Amino acid sequence: MQRRTLLRGVLGATALGAAGGCASMTGTLIAPDSATVAAAEAARRRPGRSVVTARLRASASEIDLGGRTVATWAYDEQVPGPLLRARAGDLLRVAVDNRLPASTSVHWHGLALRNDMDGVPGVTQDPIDPSGSFTYEFTAPDPGTYFYHPHSGVQLDRGLYGVLVVDDPGEAAAYDDEWVVVLDDWIDGTGTTPDAVLDELLRSGGSMMGSMGGSHAASGGSDLIGHGGDVTHAAYLINGRTPEAPSAFLGRPGQRIRLRVVNAAADTAFRVALGQHELTVTHSDGFPVEPVATDAVLIGMGERYDVVVTLGDGVFPLVACAEGKGSAALAVVRTGGGEAPPATSQPRELTGRVLLGTDLLVAESVRLPKRTVDRRLDLRLGGSMMRYRWTINGRTFADSEPLQLRQGERVAVRIANATMMFHPMHLHGHTFALRDGGARKDTVTVRPMETLEVELDADNPGQWAAHCHNLYHAEAGMMTTLSYRA
Question: What pLDDT score was predicted for residue 22?
């Protein structure tokens, strides 16, 4: 949608009505380029902060995935894109050069940044046209593991993504080394493109399965989340590599390693385990949780987990099973001699204790303070594969009614999934707290027919996207706007 068209709809909506579960609201919309947004950014900036600069070049690229070379789009001709790193409170200044044959943008996933830098064309900025450039400049307020990707069509399902780590300058190191692990499902350049898959889904409904030679219907399911997804991709990757030529981490026995695991996939949740090791989950979506030991974690699209593991002696498979799809990605941890694990490794930990984000408890240091709820909102998730139309509160994004609120309010959101698919729901510019002491998150996997309640503080003014992070569901309508009014 053109920015002027969407903003006209946002400006013209003056009431939530029954769809939002609230009384009507009047007042002035707080636009992304407003003085209120600028004031919120100014309040984040700290004296003596560092300025971290970077440049990203988005272009058509030939990428070796490990024995398969594909024509795709990437940042700086690499998949994942460059790792960006800053400290909490730093000012990031990232120039993006668009050398793609299409307009693009960059969304800074999970960051509570200033609204006009959120990277959503039609909501917070105009798109970056081909041969154009745009400089994103914002304060990184919270430490954690985040990532960046376009918010333009289905470009995320190419190779356009990378990780942003925001370090905590006051954190005492409780580990010896770290490894950034990026999970992905891959289809681009394998006989089809993400755009072609979306067109087919919209035209005929049903599921599509990417392969090196074409596509056909997918099937499968999960005991944890039901149907695995709409698209079975041609390959599943860890750090841009297939299981036949895996990425590897070299360590020493006894080392404590922090894994920063990011699910950058478009349509796939992953069950992740490290053979012969126990994982201790310490953070979810950047925020600390009460540490908990597990054999495996289930990570929905857009979620991030930090886990700590003490390495044994040998060679071990890090496996990310494509949940409900019957395939997997593989990486290798090597601390000693021995043969590399086979590409088809299935460590027993995958069938042991499996942790979901909704199982985690918040760390006391980041617990939302108790206060009275000022506003209640409903997000009712609907749709089906038959028409391939996915909705929030009965409407697709083009016809959505913004969910309105005022700065300073405590807001309770009831997310009710009335479909037979799982939906990883992502809110821009905020974190929310799961009820009953659950984790602070910005993306939560809502299972079929499940209802979750979360709370957030309306402390970041502007116009913010809220959507399913299944890329194809979002493009088929499962998106709305959290809209601040003065």
Answer: 42
Q: Which CATH architecture has domain 44-172?
A: Sandwich (2.60)
- How far apart CA 284 and CA 305 sit, in angstroms, is 5
Q: Please, which residues have CB within 8 angstroms of residue 22's CB and are 6 or more apart in sequence? A: 16, 375, 376, 377, 404
Segment 304-326, tens digit of pLDDT: 999 999 999 999 999 999 999 99
Q: How far is CA 233 from the centre of its chain?
A: 18
Measured between alpha carbons, how far is 321 from 437 in angstroms, rounded to an integer?
A: 29
Kindly indicate the confidence band of residue 14, based on its pLDDT and cuts at 50, 70 and 90.
very low
CB burial class (10 A; 0-12, 13-18, 19+) of residue 217? exposed
End-to-end CA distance of the chain: 26
CATH node for 3-30+365-484 = 2.60.40.420
Output the CATH code of domain 178-360: 2.60.40.420
Mean pLDDT of 336-359: 96
Q: Which amino acid is at 251?
A: G
The beta-strand segments (E) located in 126-196 are: 133-139, 144-149, 162-167, 177-186
Rounded CA separation 301/211 (Å): 21
- Do residues 380 and 393 make contact, with C-beta atoms less than 8 angstroms apart? yes
- The one-letter amino acid code at 214 reads G
Burial class of residue 150 in the structure, from the number of CB atoms within 10 Å of its CB (0-12 exposed, 13-18 middle, 19+ buried): buried
What SS3 state is found at 44? helix
Yes or no: say if 112 and 103 are a contact pair by the CB < 8 Å rule: no
Separation CA 355–CA 358 (nearest Å): 8
Q: Give the domain ranges of the chain.
A: 3-30+365-484, 44-172, 178-360
Q: Give the C-alpha separation, 370 to 75, whole Å.
A: 42
The 10s digit of each residue's pLDDT in 200-217 is 999 986 555 433 233 323
List pLDDT tens digits, range 147-182. Answer: 999 999 999 999 999 999 999 988 887 899 999 999
